[in-house]
Amino acid sequence: MRRYLSDPVNTRAVAGAVLVRNSRVNLVTKIQEWDYFHGIAAIKRLQSLYQGTLVAQGAFSLYDTQVLRQLGGWPHTVGKTSC
Description:
- By secondary structure, the protein is mainly alpha-helical.
- It is built from three helices and two strands.
- The protein has helices spanning 2-6, 27-49, 65-70, and strands at 13-14, 62-63.
- The protein has a two-stranded antiparallel sheet.
- It is elongated.
- The mean pLDDT is 78.
C-alpha cells in the first residue's frame, strides 16, 4: 500500500514481491528462490525503471478498482477466453 500511495498519481496498479522464507533448506527451495528472484522480481524491478509493468500479477497486487469497474471488471472465469 505504501508503494501505491508514494507512486505518481496516475499509477493504477502495483505488484507485491513474494519471497521464499526457507530458501536455503534444500534444492527445491533454492530453485524456487531463483525462480522468484530472477524470473519475477528482477523483471518487475526492470519494468519499474520505466514506470510501468506489463502485468501486475501475483499475490499482494493492488489495483485501482474505479478504473477496473470502468473497464468492465474481471472476467467471471479465470483462464477462459471468449471467441
